Amino acid sequence: MSDLDTFDLLPLQIDPATKALSSTSSSRTLAKELKALNSLHRALISLDPPSAVPPPPLPVNPKRSAQLTKLRDGGNDLHRKGKHAEAVKLYTLGLQMALERPLWEPQGLVREEVAGLYSNRAQAHMAMLDYPEAAADAEASVEAKRTGNAKAWWRRGKCLMEMGQMKESREWVRKGLELEGEETELGALLAEVEMRLAKGAGKN
């Protein structure tokens, strides 16, 4: 039998404190190997003392978060003042910044930011009676955050209704109610859409 086919079970021990390896074997070769291994272990430990380990990188860039908050709040303020087109510009800048977050930052945070900004921009478009753009933004908001986002569900449903797409609006609002539960504004919108559909059917 060749050396490659031979297996020797060696009695090894490890010191719980120092983690050094030792053996009761009389093999000089083994003793030499263990000495080299223990020496390497001590050298590696000395290279990285606990105090020299750098802290992990911050998972979220606080400056970017502060800038996003400033853009969102600025857009909200302009919207309240009736400056809807200017508000849209700030929301758009905020969206670009949120979507450019590095991949290692929490995706849940990105979705939350994007959902809010799209929904706010939809509201600004609605104020300018730009229903197609508003409907697209509201849908994008829902895609980013499907639950806990009743405003975006309502805004797209309202836009579809204003564009005369009653059946699409009804289907959308019903889906929103399934996910959001008995949300008051969505329920009221569904009732309004149903009423308009009934009136349209009566005219025919």
Q: H/E order of the elements?
A: EEHHHHHHHH
| Average pLDDT number | 88
Strand order of the largest sheet: 1-2
Biggest sheet statistics? 2 strands, antiparallel
Structure description:
It is elongated, with a radius of gyration of 32 Å. The longest helix has 21 residues, at 107-127. It has helices at residues 28-47, 62-80, 84-99, 107-127, 131-144, 150-162, 166-180, 184-203, and strands at 12-14, 21-23. The chain has 204 residues and is mainly alpha-helical. The N and C termini lie far apart (97 Å). The mean pLDDT is 88. Helix 2 packs antiparallel against helix 3 (84-99) and helix 5 runs antiparallel to helix 6. Strands 1-2 form a two-stranded antiparallel sheet.
Topology:
Elements: E1 12-14, E2 21-23, H1 28-47, H2 62-80, H3 84-99, H4 107-127, H5 131-144, H6 150-162, H7 166-180, H8 184-203
Antiparallel strand pairs: 1-2
Task: Give me some keywords for this one.
two-stranded antiparallel sheet; 68% helix; elongated; 3% strand; 8 helices; 204 residues; mainly alpha; 2 strands
Summarize the structure.
This protein is mainly α and 204 residues long. The protein has helices spanning 28-47, 62-80, 84-99, 107-127, 131-144, 150-162, 166-180, 184-203, and strands at residues 12-14, 21-23.
